[in-house]
Amino acid sequence: MKPAGSYDFIRAMRPFTFSVAIAACGLGTVLALHQGYGSVWLALLIIGAGILLQAAVNLVNDHADLPLLEEQAREVGAAHQEQYRAAISAIRRNFRWGMTFLGFAFLIGLGLVWVQGWLLLVLIIVGLLGAYFYSAEPVHYKRRGLGVILVFWLMGVLLVGGSAVAMGAPLTVDVLLISIPFSLLTSLVLLGNELRDHAEDQRHGLRTLTVRIGEWRARQLFGLMLGAVYASSLLLWWGGLLPWAWHLALSLPLAWPPLRAAWQAGADRSQLPQQTGRLFAGFGLLFLMPYLARLF
Asked: Fewest CB atoms within 10 A around its CB: which of 19, 101, 130, 131?
């Protein structure tokens, strides 16, 4: 089993993944501000709701470990019962907090729907259902190998587009296209997590995408997706949707550690999700710079 400390509240929230919500919601709100919609205060509220949603996904995620831990707890001796009871109690506590965070995010969303209309309500409902069923039955799309794919849409495209709509901006093709590099990075964070946990997931029968296609193909996919982040950004610049592109090269030093950890056979991948999260934060800030420069 994982150490009981793995389910510590702060650790279970996985703060390094907050870069996903901050960057995605930040991009959507900045694009809306660039078009003259919303305000800085509204943007901060939307980013806060995005962080709540990301924290909720992370806290609810560990609930998938509960059946296995309960089964193992029945099989071990009394000497190890306390460790299992502590882990099970922490998971249940984190699940309650995750649902509370989902509730707060939903309430913020309802307030925004009152102002912006029904399209935002549809986007919020889809997002909340996606967050809950990431690791919850009967869908549990993580164990169906769909996590990396659906996160691209739910925590990438949908979060960027929904943030723009929450600011009062229209949902345009341009906004959806601009979201692609961030959506790819969102999926990369999850793929890095799957690569790190590959052996454990395989041992416990958790059929993630990495378990289904094998570690070698998942490592290749990681490299291809990382390349696609930069290639899609260049295409956006070539198409006139991204004002600058050269400055994104400044994020390449942050790209090397996760690429090396993912690509090398037998490499230490214990920090791969965190390394990918730092890349997302650095790349996201650089990506937003030309839009922010035009605002100020």
From this structure: 130
Decide: 269 and 215 in contact? Cβ < 8 Å: no
Peptide bond before 138: cis, by omega within 30 degrees of 0? yes
Q: Return the H-helix or E-strand segment holding 107.
A: helix 81-116
- Rounded to two decimals, the pTM is 0.88
Cα angle value 118/121/124 (rounded, 5°): 155
Segment 49-68, tens digit of pLDDT: 999 988 988 888 777 777 77
Q: What's CA 155's distance to the chain center, in Å?
A: 6
How far is residue 244's CA from residue 289's CA, in Å, rounded to a whole number? 9
pLDDT digit string (tens) for 246-286?
A: 999 999 999 999 999 998 888 889 999 999 999 999 999 99
Q: For 29-117, where are the E strands, in sequence order?
A: none
H or E, element range at 96: helix 81-116
